[in-house]
Amino acid sequence: MYVCICHDVKDTQIRTAMLQGVDSVQALQDELLVGTCCGCCVPMVQDLVDEHQAKFAIDIMSA
Ligand code: FES
User: Fold this and answer.
1) Ligand 1 proximity of 40 Cβ (cutoff 6 Å)
2) 6 lines ligand 1 (CB under 6 A)
């Protein structure tokens, strides 16, 4: 699914980047340019970051 139309970035690219440690909106902007044009996708990027961090926290708590 496309998240950022301006820079042709899909959710799978964002999820892959987060698994590689690019796990903040700012870092994703630097890495993928997502959200750096019109900015409409930033809330969706933030949701993906929040989802990733919540899953990471659950993984740590269950380890
Ligand atoms: S849709 Fe991502 S910056 Fe415009």
Assistant:
1) yes
2) yes
Q: Which residue has the tokens 């590689």?
A: 20
Point out which residues pair with 9 in neighbouring strands.
Answer: 4
Going residue by residue through the chain (63 aa), what tens digit of pLDDT does each one get? Answer: 999 999 999 999 999 999 999 989 999 999 999 999 999 999 999 999 999 999 878 887 887
Q: What's the CA-to-centroid distance between 53 and ligand 1, angstroms?
A: 22
Residue 27 in tokens: 């870092």
DSSP-derived secondary structure for 2-18? EEETTTTEEHHHHHHHH
Interatomic CA distance for residues 60 and 8, integer angstroms: 33
Q: Are 45 and 12 in contact (CB under 8 A)?
A: no
The rounded Cα 15 to chain-centroid distance in angstroms is: 6
